[in-house]
Amino acid sequence: MNVQDATRPTSRILAMLELLQDRPGMSGPALADELGVTTRTIRRYVVTLQEMGIPVEPAAGRTGGYWLRPGFRLPPLMFSADEAIGLSVALLGTRTSRTGDLPMPVSRALAKIERVLPRELADQITTIREGFTVAEIEWAVRDAFPDPTVLARVTQAAMSHQRCWIRYGRPDGDQTAREIDPYGVLLYSGLWYVHGWCHLRQGTRTFRIDRIRRIDVLPRQFEPPAGFDVQDAVLRSIASARSRWEIDIEIAAPIEDVRAWVPRSVAILEAIDAGNTRMTGGTENLDWFATRLIELPYLMRVVRPIELGPKLQEMGERMLAMAATVAGRGG
Questions:
Q1: 212 forms bridges with which residues in the sheet?
Q2: Is the Cβ–Cβ distance between 258 and 280 less than 8 Å?
Q3: For residue 260, how many other CB atoms are within 10 A of its CB?
Q4: Would you place residue 99 in the very low, low, confident or very high pLDDT band (cuts 50, 70, 90)?
Q5: Which residue from 15, 168, 237, 264 could staple onto 6, CB 3.0 to 4.6 Å apart?
């Protein structure tokens, strides 16, 4: 609620309650200045709130402010028109396809917001919901919205450095129970990941949070590695997870230059020396990986897999045949 727009007594009382929620201990003169009323009116508003069962209490002393009694359960949130529409747009942005439904927790939250809004605002949200299109992305993962409780617990555990017990579901339906030290949580390309130490595998691992079926936060503490970068760790893990073909390629260019061409989720880059870079990782599709390689404007040597050689030769011959047709030079 914008306190500057609160012109009616009821609106000003609600605005005062919101101010006390945001800034406990505000003095009577400060509240009066924010709401554009007198300090006598503020005292009257305090009495009104108390009569409504809202425990607003003055602090002792000449300069003491007003507080809500500790432990009091606050009333429902109040949003301005811009805030309500902005929140609704953010919720609508979780839809991952043109025809797909919103994740169930998001759908329920949006429905609650729409039910309590004035008709004019609810109609605006309906217009946005029905009037925009989500681009279809071939590789988008469907039905991957995490359980909000699981997401909250694993994030809190990462922040407080507490070990977790999880039951993790694999794509094939199998589940494993394991203890992990969650170093950090990352949202990447519509998916939530947690990266940390897996005590079952005795190594660092990345887990998709939507595949965690259950989580218990344990009392045992851990210390994450110094300088840990969750984005770098997760993207490296994604790049190396494609295991059908192991990639090892030497590139005749400094690593800083190669980084501009190779996303961290595609391959891992390491400097061989000042002028050469090693690219490692994995892929499930050699044809796709070959197309990524020919985009790089550098000389390269394929260490492995040897099966990549014929793919590159075939693509090179096709590119030469296409080049021969330019400007009428070929058939």
A1: 168
A2: no
A3: 8
A4: low
A5: 15
CB 183 within 8 A of CB 142: no
CB 183 within 8 A of CB 233: yes
Burial 126-162 (b: 16+ CB within 10 A, else e): eeebeeeeeeeeeeeeeeebbeeebbebbbebbeeeb
Exposure letters 85-112 (e unless 16+ CB within 10 A, then b): bebbeebbeebbeeeeebbeebeebbee
CB 32 within 8 A of CB 38: yes
Q: Is residue 305 reached through a cis peptide bond, with omega within 30 degrees of 0 on the bond before it? A: yes
CA dihedral sign, ordered 12, 15, 17, 23: negative
* Burial state string for 263-279 with b = 16 or more CB within 10 A and e = fewer than 16: ebebbbbeeeeeebbbb
pLDDT at 1 over 60: no
pTM above 0.85, yes or no: no
Structure tokens belonging to residue 86: 């902005």
In this structure, what DSSP letter does residue 26 have? B
Q: What's the Rg (C-alpha) of the chain?
A: 29
Length of the chain in terms of residues written: 331
Contacts of 311 (CB under 8 A, 6+ apart): 286, 287, 290
Please state, in angstroms and rounded to a whole number, the distance separating the CA atoms of residues 135 and 207.
27
Q: Using an 8 Å Cβ cutoff, are 1 and 80 in contact? A: yes
Strand order across the beta sheet in which 212-221 lies: 203-208, 191-198, 175-188, 162-169, 212-221
Task: Give the position of tokens 């902005």.
Answer: 86
Q: What H or E segment, with its residue span, contains residue 115? A: helix 104-116
Q: Give yes or no for residue 330 having a pLDDT over 60.
A: no
Residue with tokens 């589940």: 175
- List all residues 6 or more positions away from 121 whose beta carbon is below 8 Å from its beta carbon: 81, 84, 85
